[in-house]
Please model this.
Amino acid sequence: MRCCHVRRLPGRVLGDRAARLSLAVVLTLLLVAGALTTFLPSNKEEHVLELRRGVNSQGRPVQDAFTLVMQTYNRTDLLLRLLNHYQALPRLHRVIVVWNNVGEKAPEDVWNSLGPHPVPVVFKLQTTNRMRNRLQAFPELETDAVLMVDDDMLISSQDLAFAFSVWQFPDQIVGFVPRKHVPTSSGVYSYGGFELQAPGLGDGDQYSMVLIGASFFSSKYLDLFQRQPAAVRTLIDETQNCDDIAMNFLVAKHIGKASGVFVKPVNMGSLEKETAGAHSGMWHRAEHFLQRSYCINKLAAVYEGMPLTYSNLMISQFGFPYANHKSKA
Model:
């Protein structure tokens, strides 16, 4: 009788071992997963967490949305036009209109009569016409992100959607209008745009402020503004100017770096000449730029130093972020 010796091929042996090992791994994972389920929140706990996240009536998480704050004075025609433009912005949660026409009725009835509208609009009637009225921590403000826009500024929805997506710098102001402070040999600061060259910065364009009248920033800075020295609020009230400069000082001092990030707009412009109210912007005043230089020096004294720092970062929709751009603002 012939004998034979049966051997398993090496591949078959390895295959069986791998199968057993895989089975052991799968069983281990199932056991671990079963144990972890005991730590998952119950349905009731999930409901509480959802409430804490703050979901609005449209089911959109508030942290993924923004609130538009617009202060207005003697420009009702432009206001209604801009509200119609901005109300359809993606991720817009609410509009807060800061009505500085003291003693005059806001166009709330007109607006509501022409509804429905995609988002609620709240008119906040003021008792005093102050520039800093827009920097209040409004109770209707439910989002972390604030979009602040001047009442004559028309910004395309594409620009705003892009800037909001850039708002990955939640501690900084992300906006469309950069400015700078320039030191002089006498130790006095001057205010201006890119055309002012700061000593020692070479030929590259630099900025140290991003104006809040066309920008996104965190609502926490509205709370912080209320706690700034009284001299800051007094300065703004005396000049009816410089609240945007004060916010840049506040942010720069709070984070210890550049206060803002400049996003290059594609389609943005002023409608000031189209208003029937014949109210010119503050920048037309002869003393406007002198006041802003004055404010920079006063704020530096209040904060006992210069917190503003320079940046040359510009972010564009049609290219990578780059420095030393040549566009003039």
Summary: The first strand starts at residue 66 and ends at 72. Residues 69 and 96 are 5 Å apart (CA to CA).
